[in-house]
Amino acid sequence: MQEFIGIDLGSNSLRGVRMNTQYEVLGEYEAVVRSAEGLNESGKICNAALERIVLGLQNLKKALKIKPQDRIIALTTQAMRQATNSKEVLEIIAQKTQIEFQIITGEEEAYITSLAPQRSVKKLAQVNPKYQKDCFVIVDMGGASSEFIFCTEKGITAKSFKVGIVQAKDQYKTLENFIAHKKEIIAPIVEFINEQSHNKPAFLVANSGTPTMVCAIKMGLKSYDSKKVFGKVLKIEDFKEELHKFETLNQEEKENLVGVFKADVVPFGIMLFLFFMEILEFEECLIIDEGVREGAAILGIDKINLHQKNK
Fold first, then answer.
1. Where do the structural domains in the chain lie, given as residue ranges?
2. Cβ distance 135 to 158 under 8 Å?
3. Which of 190, 210, 284, 311 could be 269's S-S partner, Cβ–Cβ 3.0 to 4.6 Å?
4. Nearest Cα residue to 137 out of 79, 199, 181
5. How does DSSP classify residue 126?
6. Between the CA of residue 273 and those of 23, 64, 69, 165, 201, what are the distances in Å?
7. How far apart, in whole angstroms, are the C-alpha atoms of residue 173 and residue 167?
8. Which is it for strands 71-76 and 101-103: parallel, antiparallel or unpaired?
9. Domain 3-103, CATH class in plain words
């Protein structure tokens, strides 16, 4: 049975998955690489971020047991879209890791992000009538951009916005300043949502790092497991409670809980997602930790399966 490797180099995280043509996940990898660190100020991917990306990819290759003959679909998003040195950076990455990335647009990112969650929602709907609805919305919140994806039986309507957790921290510096600029941050998103009055979503799916991390912390998981958070529901109160708990920790405790590279952006991520829940008017969200990496693999698998079917 053939297998595909899907890789997502985001503005904050590097994520990889190995999947077979039955869409079964055979291995996963994730690391925080902070691709967008300092991007707002310099307009470039910095050397420290490049080093973290290369190291992360080398570890990913080991973790997923990647061989030269493996089929790899490697995609990268907002940080590389924005950086003036992205071509040079991706050439260095290819030289050092033998992995060639394709920069995708915000619209392509939204579509690819939606593929795996749409499959999962259909499965959940078979056992839970709550998810047997014609329309739902996915919010994929990254390091430098966030995608709002309205999924219907007729297809998706989506838009990418240049607001994310690393970008928010770098631009606004403090959580208080970030909150003070809430109105201008959400204004373009509110406009887009208002344009979707004909697509009234019945529920919200959260598939990005902050909601999944909050879910894992709330569950008391010693180590993160995407399968254990899958299908869980978080309420607004859960986010507020975990944010309050996090803010009472000292720096060492924060780093021990979420890691050195996440500790300073976690409050921004939680607050930003609370903004999103508020403007979407949802009190809760469904956790499905699937996104671009799974979507990349699914693209390859769908192509193979269609070819086999048409033989």
1. 3-103, 107-293
2. no
3. 210
4. 199
5. H
6. 29, 31, 40, 9, 17
7. 10
8. parallel
9. alpha beta
